Amino acid sequence: MACLESETAELDRLTMTERVVAEVARAKDVSPTDLNPLQSVVDPDALDQLFDPVANSPRMAGQVSFSYHGYEVTAHADGYIQLTQQSE
């Protein structure tokens, strides 16, 4: 199984939802618009809110995982996105 790690420095300006889509598109070597909507597997608003800052402090703990386009996606509170390719 291949594991791909995000380049968080260039993704800092994106929401968690945008980061996930960007990373999966990069891993699959396609445009983000070529992917099925993320909302088919997870609520994008909930994903973004889960890691929103609280009382002007960033959330530094927690993660959530879900399957999307053949990858196990793990989104971490610090913005790190880990993709693990699922076996077919």
What is shown here, in short?
The protein has helices at residues 8-11, 16-28, 44-50; strands at residues 3-5, 63-68, 71-76, 81-85. It has 88 residues and is of the alpha+beta class. It has one domain (3-85).
Could you describe the 3D structure shown?
With 88 residues, the protein is α+β, with helices and mostly antiparallel strands. The protein has one domain (3-85). Helices cover 27% and strands 23% of the residues. The chain has three helices and four strands. The chain has helices at 8-11, 16-28, 44-50; strands at residues 3-5, 63-68, 71-76, 81-85. The protein has a four-stranded antiparallel β-sheet with strand order 1-4-3-2, with helices on one face. The radius of gyration is 13 Å and the shape is globular.
Q: What labels describe this entry?
A:
27% helix, globular, 88 residues, 4-stranded antiparallel sheet, 4 strands
Strand content: 15-25%
Distance between the termini: 10 Å
Helix amount, in percent?
A: 25-40%
> Helical stretch count?
3
Q: Biggest β-sheet, characterized?
A: 4 strands, antiparallel
Q: Pairing-aware structural class of the strands and helices? A: alpha+beta
Number of separate strands: 4
Low-confidence stretches: none
Overall body shape:
globular
Order of helices and strands: EHHHEEE
> What is the rounded Rg?
13 Å
**Spatial strand arrangement across the major sheet:** 1-4-3-2
Tell me the domain tally: 1
Mean pLDDT value = 84
Organism: Halorientalis brevis
InterPro entries: HalOD1 (IPR040624)
Protein name: HalOD1 output domain-containing protein
Pfam family, one: HalOD1
